[in-house]
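Following up on my earlier message about adenosine-5'-triphosphate. Here are the inputs again, as you asked, copied directly from the submission form:
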Amino acid sequence: MAVADTRPRKALDAVELDPRREPIVVVDDLHIVYRVYGAGGKGNAASAFSRVLRRKHRPTMTEVHAIKGLSFVAYRGEAVGIIGTNGSGKSTLLKAIAGLLPPHRGGVYTDGQPSLLGVNAALMKDLTGERNIVLGCLAMGMSPAETRAKYKEIVDFAGLKEGFIQYPMRTYSSGMGARLRFAIAAAKTHDVLLIDEALATGDAKFKVKSKRRIEELRKEAGAVFLVAHQLDVVKETCDRVIWIDEGRMHMDGDPEEVIAAYVETTGK
Ligand SMILES: Nc1ncnc2c1ncn2[C@@H]1O[C@H](COP(=O)(O)OP(=O)(O)OP(=O)(O)O)[C@@H](O)[C@H]1O
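Thanks, got it. Here's what our run produced:
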């Protein structure tokens, strides 16, 4: 899948390519800019009316430059951890790789279909866990027969308390929701699996289980990207870590080294 590239290629030239491995995600001088309308102005009816009278269609617009020229190549079989302080651009990068945010400049190229598994992944709160499994599997492109075949495996993996699978998801704790989301996403082999904080709320036993499943997914599929604030999860799960600071690449390499440098700099 290719996402708009509107400028001469330059930044990726600086990235070293490993000719022995197969690239699966290429991020080339990526810039992501959010447009925020109405920031700074009063968001009430009077100011909207005043805009109408002044024939100004839109409230003031400000831009947030969240990713500022990021370039790297991820290879088949890699598990890449993305770390950085709050607001550094981790979730934005995942969304851009998933194709959910258009690049302002530069591009993201993936070999195969990326799937984003986030804390806010679109499960329906008013539907039962059971219905969400079916909908989730169908939404991931599985056939009804495949969905039926995988159903029990998903329920077992999520390991919810007895009977909860028949309850609406709004009755689940955040940890239970995260477990079910992960279990649904992990039921399928993904070309590129993007995980945003989904493992944060699981307990220790579930983390071990998910780590094992991520390893399997890496073998079966393309690459796994993981955003997590818990550095131990990243260290245990990933074989490469990218540290983003204010939307820019700060460090990229061995998990132990990058995390040690991050802890030393940020004190986290
Ligand atoms: N929908 C949005 N509209 C405008 N600005 C946004 C939006 N989402 C994120 N931002 C801004 O983009 C920047 C990067 O945010 P992002 O959520 O990617 O950071 P993050 O590293 O994932 O943060 P955290 O660790 O807190 O989850 C921040 O300055 C944030 O305020």
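One observation from looking it over: The two ends are 36 Å apart (CA to CA). Hope that helps, and feel free to reply on this thread.
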